[in-house]
Amino acid sequence: MNPTLADKIAHAPKAELHIHIEGSLEPELIFELARRNDVKLAYDSIDALRAAYAFTDLQSFLDIYYAGASVLLHEQDFYDMTLAYVERALADHVTHAEIFFDPQTHTERGVPIETVVAGIERALAEGERRGLTSKLILCFLRHLPEEDALATYESALPLFDKYPHRLIGVGLDSSERGHPPSKFERVFAKARERGLKLVAHAGEEGPPSYVYEALDLLKVDRVDHGVRSIEDAALVARLADSRIALTVCPLSNLKLCVFDDMTKHTLKDLLDQGVAVMINSDDPAYFGGYVNANYFAIVDALKLSEDEAYTLLRNSLEASFVTDEERAAMIARLNTYWKQ
Ligand code: ADE
Ligand code: ZN
Question: Which residues line ligand 1 (CB under 6 A)?
């Protein structure tokens, strides 16, 4: 792609709204933590682990992703993982990040949810000192029963009280097919009553009906991925009218075979029809790049213009869960930068 545009995007202030902190765990850190915590891995070396990152669909990725997370045991482990992401994000000029974590992946191994959040929070507080503002979103694993999500939600209530500035929402992730949003209506209703922000992965591998369910039954504020919405014209019009954003993750979609080639990605069609899409990295340690690499890949493949790149960046700020005042300041900063 045009190197001037790449440079302009790279240095632009931006928000990242779809990043699973466990998906930022690089193979080097997985091995270091395995050694530190005496956890046995199924791979002999960093190279052997990386070689296993040849995914055919979402589930083939999730199996390896959950195995990678098994090295996280202590507060310091969650701190180290999160601080590594903070540094990568700052290097990509991310000024605001909204970060997912999967407590059930850890509590089922006996790691208390308080340990998980304390480690992540300590690194995010350090991130704030270095120039990255952030929010944290607790995700429920949809392959597990709703009763487990409800128990996780109840166990997290003291943490929502303790970290109100940080822990501001709930989300839904893991294996999409066969686990529609409707399965989690009750737990999302509770979170909504409490005034939390709501997001859900939908329309990544699953059909447009899952996006409708996320909107109508869970009443989400944003949809994660949502790229299959393009198959339903009425849904696209509704997303455009409501300005409910889709947090799109191009390299993830490519690696998980949602599209067999980046030139087939539907982001430009969504953008052309007025849907608030923006660019994110999802699980950057597994999919070959952090947020800037995702921008480069999609702008290059779809031959997006400078104006379209600006719209994506601006949408990331518009869709952030920040106050109107903070949003206005972030947009002003982008505008000043973009005009120079
Ligand atoms: N957990 C981590 N990454 C995910 C993705 N892309 N889809 C669903 N669940 C996930
Ligand atoms: Zn995701």
Answer: 20, 23, 58, 65, 173-174, 201, 204, 252, 282-283
Ligand number nearest CA of 252 is 1
Q: How many domains does the chain have?
A: 1
Alpha-carbon distances, residue 138 vs 21, 93, 169 (angstroms): 11, 24, 6
Give the position of tokens 């050694």.
35
CA-CA distance, 237 to 217, in Å (whole number)?
Answer: 19
β-sheet with 197-202: strand ranges across:
14-20, 94-101, 133-141, 167-173, 197-202, 222-225, 245-248, 277-279
126/135 Cα distance (integer angstroms): 13
Tell me the average pLDDT of the chain. 98
Pairing of strands 222-225, 197-202: parallel
Can you give the pLDDT at residue 3?
87
Q: Is 198 helix (H, G, I), strand (E, B) or coil?
A: strand
Task: Specify the amino acid at residue 260.
Answer: D
Q: Could you read off the pLDDT of 66-103 as tens digits, one per residue?
A: 999 999 999 999 999 999 999 999 999 999 999 999 99
Query: What region does 323 belong to: left with phi over 0, alpha with psi -120 to 50, or beta?
Result: beta
CB atoms within 10 A of CB 144: 17
Q: Mind listing the pLDDT tens digit for each residue in 177-195?
A: 999 999 999 999 999 999 9
Identified catalytic residue from 22, 98, 121, 204:
204
Torsion of the alpha carbons at 140, 144, 145 and 147, rounded to the nearest 10: -50
Query: Given the CA of residue 283, which atom of ligand 1 is nearest to it?
Result: 3
The CA–CA distances, whole Å, from 204 to 31, 227, 229 equal: 30, 6, 9
For the entire predicted model, the pTM comes to 0.98
Q: Tokens 């990295």 belong to which residue?
A: 281
Q: Which range of residues forms the domain containing residue 334? A: 3-339
The one-character DSSP state at 282 is: B
Whether 5 and 298 have beta carbons less than 8 Å apart is answered as: no
CATH number of the domain bearing residue 232: 3.20.20.140
* Mean local confidence (pLDDT), 114-137: 98
pLDDT at residue 236, rounded to an integer:
98
